[in-house]
Design goal:
The structure holds 2 protein chains of 2 kinds. Chain A has a single domain, classed as Dynein light chain 2a, cytoplasmic (Beta-Lactamase, 2-Layer Sandwich). Helix content of chain A is about 45%, strand content about 20%. Chain A contains 4 helices and 6 strands; from the N terminus they run βαββαβββαα. Helix content of chain B is about 30%, strand content about 30%. By secondary structure, chain B is of the alpha/beta class. Chain B has one domain: Rossmann fold (3-Layer(aba) Sandwich). The chains are: A alpha+beta, B alpha/beta.
Chain lengths: ~160, ~200
């Protein structure tokens, strides 16, 4: 397997959620997401009500993958920070420890400077948490939900 | 790379539809999207050119049910088939859990099929995957077209690893869900095997 499976347990999930909740408040942001680089949404905080978070996650990962490709062509390391400016809303994207993506959506109630500042602190905290997540995911003594799944369970899923 | 979330009790996996240009990868996803219960699917996203050729990828999130209390979600992606979009294809293969190779059954496309399959093998290897060990199925699409190669010939040319394969007409849906179910099952079986190691 090329990249190890990521397993998110309750303890680390709560820690990630605490970081994103705090970032929404500290940066006065509308929404904050944490996304796996492969496009899976990990956590979301703020006003997510009418947002299609699954699509956002996939497209953001696509953007990061595409700019990563550009970086490689330029023999540059990853472009870890991106900023998209809109008429009413802006998006700040930060790659965290080369593994996950921190996305902040904000409007004119705050400023890019404040968002950048708060993202920096959140990035440090998330780096620490995801190091633990990956260490735990690779720990052979941690149980996986798949360990208990039988072939029958899988067959039953596909019975019409 | 699958993602398991214990708090929301979800398992997420990524499946990529690969194949030569105009073989019907997007049509597969469109048929799945149109025939799936609205509760079980998200929006289908197509990053396409003005002439509806896939530019970067199509994306369809799909929920297929629960296993032992875990919601099982598959994220389906297609790659752009045209030869010059190779850089994009490599990116989309990152973190893949299972692959569907959609072959175009028309005789004229036989070279395009083998070229695309060689490209799949190379690009997977660059990401550290091996086409001989990753969950993988083949679909022989466009069986309704004139001048098609016999399935047995396609099989000999493309299915050297004897993986599950299916005849299909993606525009009418023939073989579409059979292909998806087969690869999804292989992905879950592989995850189960990985957990037992």
């Amino acid at each position: 397997m090329a990249s190890p499976q990521m397993v998110m347990y309750e303890e680390e999930f709560a820690q990630v959620q605490a970081v994103t909740n705090r970032l929404v408040q500290d940066a006065n942001a509308r929404v904050v997401f944490v996304i796996d680089k492969n496009g899976q949404l990990i956590s979301a905080s703020g006003d997510t009500g009418d947002l299609d978070t699954t699509s956002l996650a996939s497209l953001t990962a696509g953007t990061i993958a595409a700019t990563g490709g550009i970086a490689q062509l330029l023999r540059e390391q990853e472009f870890a920070t991106q900023y998209h400016e809109g008429v009413r809303q802006n998006v700040h994207i930060q790659v965290v420890s080369g593994r996950v993506i921190l996305v902040v959506i904000f409007d004119n109630r705050t400023s890019l400077g404040l968002v950048r500042l708060r993202v920096k602190r959140a990035t440090e905290n998330l780096t620490r948490i995801f190091e633990m997540v990956m260490a735990k995911s690779q720990d052979p003594f941690q149980s996986s939900p798949f360990a208990e799944i039988t072939d029958d369970d899988i067959d039953n899923l596909f019975n019409d | 790379m699958s993602f398991i979330n214990y708090l929301s009790r979800e398992i997420n996996c990524k499946i990529v539809y690969y194949g030569p240009g105009l073989c019907g990868k997007t049509t597969n996803l469109q048929y799945i999207y149109n025939r799936t219960n609205p509760d079980a699917k998200g929006k289908m996203i197509s990053l396409a050119t003005e002439t509806e050729r896939t530019l970067f990828f199509d994306f369809l999130p799909l929920e297929i049910g629960e296993i032992r209390g875990f919601k099982t979600r598959f994220h389906l992606y297609t790659v752009p088939g045209q030869v010059f979009y190779d850089a994009s294809r490599k990116l989309i293969l990152k973190g893949v859990d299972g692959v569907v190779f959609v072959a175009d059954s028309q005789m004229l496309r036989s070279e395009a099929n083998t070229e695309s399959m060689d490209n799949l093998r190379t690009n997977l290897a660059e990401q550290g995957y091996n086409l001989d060990t990753i969950p993988y199925v083949i679909q022989y699409n466009k069986r309704d077209m004139p001048n098609i190669s016999p399935t047995e010939e396609l099989r000999q040319m493309l299915n050297t690893g004897d993986v599950p394969d299916f005849n299909a007409v993606a525009t009418t849906g023939e073989g579409v869900f059979e292909t998806l179910k087969s690869v999804a099952k292989l992905v879950l079986t592989e995850l189960k095997r990985g957990a037992a190691r």
